[in-house]
From TrEMBL:
Protein name: Zinc metalloprotease
Organism: Metaplanococcus flavidus
Cofactor: Zn(2+)
NCBIfam families on file: RIP metalloprotease RseP
Annotated gene: rseP
Cross-referenced Pfam families: PDZ_6, Peptidase_M50
Signal peptide: none
Domain of life according to the entry: Bacteria
Keyword Protein biosynthesis attributed: no
Keyword entries, A-Z: Hydrolase, Membrane, Metal-binding, Metalloprotease, Protease, Transmembrane, Transmembrane helix, Zinc
UniProt-listed Enzyme Commission number(s): 3.4.24.-
Stored InterPro entries: PDZ, PDZ_6, PDZ_sf, Pept_M50_Zn, Peptidase_M50
Length: 419
């Protein structure tokens, strides 16, 4: 149950902040947001506030912000349609009823002659006395069909009507908020747990390792490698990992005295590839530093950003196979393992996942945020947008391929963890 709760909280936070980015920038651009959804599939819970419905849906595989002006969003009144209209005290149509199942007092029935519900906002039609009537439509009018109400979206409140810059930032804001969330998670770890000093102090020397054979001990402070000053554990790692098989001179401070060692790093298989190691472990002491916590948050965010990009490059160049990818099942099982090591390890895992989600969404693949941003870049270069039907077809094919990839990855996870 703890794993389930952890997974729901982490997944919910990542998706919520991603969609919150889209939502905030859409609102700032004046776009009408019809729905803010966490999850996909059938609706479990829905709360309407203002012109937006906030929903939680059944399948934990994503979320979305549905903005006015999308292909299935348009409301068109064809000539010959019989509609009902409610008019306010100013004579503006405030509600348009597309069926007569609901009975309202003072309803005006019209047979539509002509209508524009996006630009000029009017309806022309014949009333029950066969008189031609023209009504202006309120900007916040509601269209009701089969008991379901939809707020009208004038053209200037639709996504496609906004400037290229506003549209670009509305889409880019989703991944951006994932990076911001990661920064705050890592900063919170620094505030609550303390900031690692990152001093190159050995915590443990592994058995039968080059370091043990040379005489290194726990508590040794490594000060130099090959005459180069070492001030952090990261500098030590950088000095060793590319030197497998090459003897290196180490200077170590022990009990106030300097001790010299000559150690040859050995090759070790790591997730990021084969690297040189000398067989020492490290657990950095931590100190409370309010402002340093935010520096730590930024540095850790940048570190994982670079690391995920590097691993992605290895996948593209074939150094990883598709079996190395994980879907929801794999993430759930990893969350189960990570949760065993405590809340701070779980928070670090959530921060890394948030960065990963942001980067994956920025890839220039159809149906992802990066794919949409790619079309905006093309629009900027061409001076005009790509044909919407062609773009829609590209995104549709992309969605199908992504769904296929998700099925393959999920099946691999099931095989890996349960069989």
């Amino acid at each position: 149950m703890e794993t389930v709760i952890s997974f729901i909280i982490i997944f919910g936070a990542l998706v919520f902040f991603h969609e919150l980015g889209h939502f905030i920038f859409a609102k700032r651009a004046g776009i009408l947001v019809r729905e803010f959804a966490i999850g996909m599939g059938p609706k479990i819970l829905g709360i309407t506030k203002g012109e937006t419905i906030y929903t939680i849906r059944l399948l934990p595989i994503g979320g979305y912000v549905r903005m006015a002006g999308e292909e299935m969003d348009r409301i068109i009144l064809q000539a010959g349609h019989r509609i009902g209209v409610l008019v306010d005290e100013k004579g503006l149509a405030k509600k348009i009823i597309l069926n007569q199942k609901t009975i309202y007092p003072d309803i005006l029935f019209l047979e539509v002659e002509d209508a524009d519900l996006e630009k000029e906002l009017y309806i022309k039609g014949y009333d029950e006395e066969d008189q031609l009537v023209r009504l202006d439509v309120a900007r916040d009018a509601v269209v009701e069909e089969n008991g379901r109400e939809t707020v009208l979206a004038p053209q200037d409140r639709q996504f496609d009507s906004k400037s290229l810059g506003h549209r670009f930032m509305t889409i880019f804001a989703g991944p951006l908020f994932n990076f911001i969330l990661a920064f705050f998670i890592f900063s919170a770890i620094g505030l609550l747990q303390g900031v690692p000093t990152n001093e190159p102090i050995i915590t443990e020397v592994t058995d039968d390792s080059p370091a043990q054979e040379a005489g290194m001990e726990a508590g040794d402070l490594i000060t130099q490698v090959e005459g180069n000053t070492i001030t952090s554990w990261n500098e030590l790692v950088d000095s060793v990992q590319d030197q497998a098989g090459n003897p290196l001179d180490f200077s170590v401070e022990r009990d106030g005295e300097t001790v010299e060692f000559n150690i040859t790093p050995e090759l070790s298989e790591q997730p990021q590839g084969d690297v040189g190691v000398i067989g020492v472990l490290y657990e950095s002491p931590r100190e409370q530093d309010f402002f340093g916590s935010f520096v730590y948050g930024a540095e850790t965010t940048v570190f994982w950003f670079k690391e995920i990009f590097r691993l992605l490059g290895m996948l593209v160049t074939g150094q990883f196979t598709i079996d190395a990818l994980s879907g929801p099942v794999g993430i759930y099982k990893t969350t189960e393992e990570v949760a065993k090591y405590g809340i701070f390890t779980l928070m670090s895992w959530a921060g890394m996942l948030s960065i990963n989600l942001g980067i994956m969404n920025l890839l220039p693949l159809p149906a992802l945020d990066g794919g949409r941003l790619m079309f905006f870049v093309l629009e900027g270069l061409r001076g005009k947008p790509v044909d919407r039907q062609k773009e829609g077809m590209v995104h549709f094919v992309g969605i199908m391929l992504l769904m296929l990839l998700m099925i393959v990855v999920t099946w691999n996870d099931i095989q890996k963890f349960f069989f």
